[in-house]
Design goal:
- With 317 residues, this protein is of the alpha/beta class.
- It is built from twelve helices and twelve strands.
- The strands form two sheets. It has a six-stranded parallel β-sheet, sandwiched between helices. Strands 9-8-7-10-11-12 form a six-stranded parallel β-sheet, with helices on both faces.
- Helix 1 packs across helix 12 (300-314), helix 2 (59-68) packs across helix 4 (91-99) and helix 10 packs across helix 11 (281-293).
């Protein structure tokens, strides 16, 4: 078995998507029998191959590894901010992409933005998740957004949609995420002060966040751009119906015909979907059925098998 290094710009003990992905990949690779270490950078530690989470922010680590080991493979994740809203890599990032043995996409639509000469290197590995199902309370209709507060996540969209639904007094919107932008944090605090149906508890331990996700009636993923969000896989695993912005990172996982899609940034459209989900049981049931049907996509065994196949392509027998 091989020794594999995973580099990610996300620091230890953080709960950003890049860190969550790195930790989960390490589990899958260890299940396959490989030795794995995770670091924020590569500074010469011995390994048979390097897996870089985020092309742009890991480009320097990739360059150092390739300079030291030109015969060993680099596998490079196409993160959301690498490829969306437009794919415009700077020279170091482009060099990292060109030097990679394989490029990893988190959903199949990502390959379309990669230059034609590199598309044959793209392999899709959808993110797996395990979230225990839970009973949803009857006294309130819970809607959750799991997103750190930064502009690309558009984290306040569900709360702003809630303001357009004053007649639905039993709606409860919860935003779970760390304040990464002071302006968004201030806006979230203002909304929570004037709208009692909205709460922002900040960042929570994973177990607590997953419990809130599993007990919610809806999960809203309003991002402006995603490579393929962990929260989509987590909601699918929990069986929590999804409303999501119509971006490739979401449609690549859910399908272009997903009944709960809304245009990016369209508060009124999201509010309309929230109203339908609350007032039309058949619509909510359709969302639930479609969500449950996707569970095989996010099974850990499937992700592990995709990694086994990928490593068989690039590592010596």
């Amino acid at each position: 078995m091989a020794t594999l290094g995973i580099v990610t710009p996300a620091a230890r003990r953080t709960r950003t998507g890049n860190r969550v992905t790195a930790l989960r990949w390490a589990r899958r690779l260890r299940e396959l029998g490989h030795r794995v270490f995770i670091a924020q950078d590569w500074q010469g530690r011995a390994c048979d191959g390097l897996i870089a989470v985020h092309a742009r922010r890991s480009a320097a680590a990739v360059a150092r590894f390739r300079g030291a080991h030109p015969d060993r493979p680099v596998l490079l994740l196409l993160a959301g901010t690498d490829i969306y809203p437009t794919f415009t890599p700077d020279p170091p990032t482009l060099a990292a992409l060109q030097s990679a043995a394989r490029l990893i996409a988190l959903q199949p639509e990502a390959a379309a933005v990669v230059p034609a000469g590199l598309r044959d290197r793209v392999r899709t590995i959808e993110q797996s998740a395990v979230v225990a199902a839970a009973i949803r309370p009857d006294e309130a209709f819970g809607i959750i957004t799991l997103a750190h507060l930064r502009p690309i996540k558009d984290p306040l969209r569900a709360a702003e949609a809630l303001l357009l639904l004053p007649e639905l007094r039993d709606l409860r919107v919860t935003l779970v995420g760390k304040a990464l932008e002071p302006e968004l944090a201030a806006a979230a605090a203002r909304l929570a002060a004037v709208e009692p149906r909205f709460s922002w508890p900040g960042e929570l331990p994973r177990a607590a966040a997953m419990q809130l996700l599993a007990t919610a009636h809806l999960c809203v993923v309003p991002s402006l751009g995603e490579g393929g969000a962990n929260v989509v896989s987590e909601a699918i695993a929990a069986g929590t119906p999804l409303l999501a912005s119509r971006i490739p990172g979401n449609t690549g996982l859910l399908g272009a015909d997903w009944p709960g899609l809304f245009p990016v940034g369209d508060t009124a459209a999201l509010a309309g979907l929230m109203r339908r989900a609350r007032q039309q049981p058949q619509f909510l049931a359709e969302l639930q059925q479609r969500t449950l049907a996707l569970r095989p996509l996010v099974a850990p065994a499937r992700e592990r098998e995709l990694w086994r196949r990928l490593l068989a392509e690039v590592l010596p027998a």
